[in-house]
Specification:
Strand content: 15-25%
Structural class: alpha/beta
Shape: globular
Order of helices and strands: EHEHEEEHHEHHEHHHEHHEEHEEHE
Distance between the termini: 8 Å
Radius of gyration: 21 Å
Strand order of the largest sheet: 3-4-5-6-7-8
Number of helices: 13
Length: about 325
């Protein structure tokens, strides 16, 4: 995107009084905050000779990597630093957030693929133990509600490592706590569309390892189903984060929700846009998949009385985007 001469030229003489800018990150290029600031700068530049509109910027995330920063910024929380283990059981410094009685857990802080050197990646060995450490730390601080972002994992252990890190305390946590999962993944735990077959190759698994991981997941689900009397392995999202989604759904009765929609609800987006003339949203690249529940489409659904502009790093299927309801597409 040519910030000055392309997408932001739309603001020239627009005359809007109040604008919300709420873009997802341009992954690998700009964070949500950086995108918002760039667009806000363009808005102010094109309105330099007129009364500048009131501009509100909102950092956005779909629950993947970077989710912690975005949720804390939006919800005005505090950051907690702890020592925990990464997916190869190496000591690291990790962070989670607390907002009132709610903990914001980004599993990539401990079980993240980005923390593991490419030559060291092996989902047969990688563990979600560190996720359990973060949850236990927050639980001991008195937190009883958890929002968990499931993106960017190096693991495919079905959350077994997380449960082991909790020890017998998982039973108390099950009784006393509630969990909401922020993830756009709808895959089941097992099978050709499950965690191992779809995601493990990205984490270093070869074909033989994929089958072993799928068999392990299926066995764990069978044992767990006998224990609880129900089976959540086929539930949408069970395959997220190498089966961590399953562990939360099966062992903690978690609720799975699209990350972007969860964030919009948590910050009271519907109330924020009541007196807004224009909402500008965007992402790294927009195409037909954008309309399958990604952030811009979620915002479009909420903006019934506002003009919604899509300003992304790249756009395919431009006419499809306009037909969906975006006033301008850049």
């Amino acid at each position: 995107m040519d910030r000055k001469n392309d997408g932001l030229r739309l603001m020239d003489g627009a005359g809007y009084k109040k604008i919300i800018i709420a873009c997802d990150s341009y992954k690998g290029c700009l964070s949500s905050r950086e995108v918002n600031e760039a667009i806000a700068s363009g808005v102010k530049e094109w309105n330099a000779d007129d009364a500048s509109p009131e501009i509100i910027t909102l950092e956005m995330s779909d629950g993947g990597e970077g989710m912690l920063d975005v949720f804390l910024s939006a919800m005005k929380g505090v950051r907690v630093k702890i020592h925990a283990h990464d997916a190869l059981m190496r000591w690291i410094e990790a962070e989670y957030g607390i907002v009132d009685d709610t903990a914001i857990i980004e599993i990539a802080q401990t079980a993240g693929l980005a923390l593991i050197e490419p030559e060291q990646r092996n989902p047969m060995k990688a563990t979600s133990w560190g996720v359990g450490e973060m949850i236990m730390n927050a639980y001991r601080r008195g937190v009883r509600r958890f929002i968990v972002g499931l993106g960017g994992s190096a693991t495919s252990d079905c959350g077994i490592g997380m449960l082991k890190a909790m020890g017998d305390d998982w039973k108390k946590i099950r009784r006393e706590c509630s969990f909401v999962l922020a993830s756009d993944v709808t895959n089941p735990l097992c099978g050709e569309n499950g965690a191992a077959h779809v995601f493990a190759p990205q984490k270093g698994a070869d074909a033989k390892m994929v089958q072993m991981l799928d068999d392990r997941a299926r066995k764990f689900a069978e044992v767990s189903a006998k224990h609880f009397g129900y089976d959540r392995s086929e539930a949408p999202g069970a395959g997220a984060a190498g089966g961590l989604g399953y562990a939360f759904l099966q062992y903690f009765n978690a609720e799975a929700r699209p990350g972007a929609e969860l964030l919009l609800d948590e910050i009271g987006f519907d109330d924020l846009i009541q007196d807004v003339d224009l909402v500008i949203t965007g992402e790294g690249h927009s195409d037909k998949q954008t309309l399958m529940g990604k952030l811009p489409q979620r915002i479009l659904e909420h903006g019934a009385n506002q003009k919604i502009w899509l300003v992304s790093g790249g756009v395919s299927d431009r006419q499809v985007m306009q037909d969906a309801g975006f006033e301008e597409v850049k």
